[in-house]
Design brief:
By secondary structure, the chain is of the alpha/beta class. The chain contains 8 helices and 5 strands. The protein has a 5-stranded mixed beta sheet. Strand 4 and strand 5 form a beta hairpin. InterPro entries: UDG_Type-4/5 (IPR051536), Ura-DNA_glyco_family4 (IPR005273), Uracil-DNA_glycosylase-like (IPR005122), Uracil-DNA_glycosylase-like_sf (IPR036895).
Length: 202
């Protein structure tokens, strides 16, 4: 993959609509050896402008949830299934997701996290390669195949869901606490060191 160092894409023109829509390629941010990786859907307008994922209102919700779980944003890696903003913030197409899949799988393999958290329905379905009822499955931990590796994945609501429905906020924050605990980070960690957090609580 030319223009790709295992984590960051510097040049890609596989998706004509995305190339036309983007002002820049938005790569993942965070440590190259992060224990916890969050995967969103695609950059929006704020992300396209800033060149960093989850920097708008949704990003503030995620940052607050991480803070409440005792972890700073800088300690985790945040990326997207698709690295270029879709026109009019539409969902990425199946072809666009497929074109970017190799970049995402290689990034996750390179970082080698303990846990991946999918933020919303699109990344959950993309990584698991099946239909996902995200409101029912949020908080579930599954093992999925990413390239040549098995990866532990925690499904989560998208942080934007809490902006449209405040009743989702507690559940989202509980999922982030569980993610932090499963990854062995911050206040969400479990003192007995068995890697299991508070998934049984919800």
């Amino acid at each position: 993959m030319d223009g790709f160092d295992g984590r960051c894409v510097t040049d890609c023109e596989q998706c004509p609509d995305l190339v036309a829509s983007r002002s820049r390629i938005v790569n993942g941010v965070g440590p190259d050896d992060a224990e916890l990786v969050f995967v969103g859907e695609a950059p929006g307008a704020n992300e396209d402008e800033a060149g960093e994922p989850f920097v708008g209102r949704s990003g503030s919700v995620l940052d607050d949830a991480l803070d409440n779980a005792g972890v700073d944003r800088s300690a985790v890696r945040i990326t997207n299934c698709v690295r270029c903003r879709p026109p009019d913030n539409r969902d990425p197409t199946t072809d666009e997701l497929a074109n970017c899949r190799g970049y995402l799988e290689t990034e996750i393999e390179t970082v080698d996290p303990t846990l991946v958290v999918t933020l919303g329905k699109v990344p959950s379905e993309h990584l698991l390669d099946r239909s996902v009822a995200i409101t029912k499955e949020a908080g579930d931990v599954v093992d999925c195949r990413l390239g040549d590796r098995s990866q532990r994945v925690l499904l989560s609501m998208h942080p934007a869901a809490t902006l449209y429905d405040a009743s989702q906020r507690d559940g989202f924050e509980e999922t982030i606490v569980s993610a932090v605990g499963l990854a062995g980070l911050g206040d969400g960690g479990n003192d007995d060191g068995d890697g299991q957090s508070r998934l049984g609580e919800f």
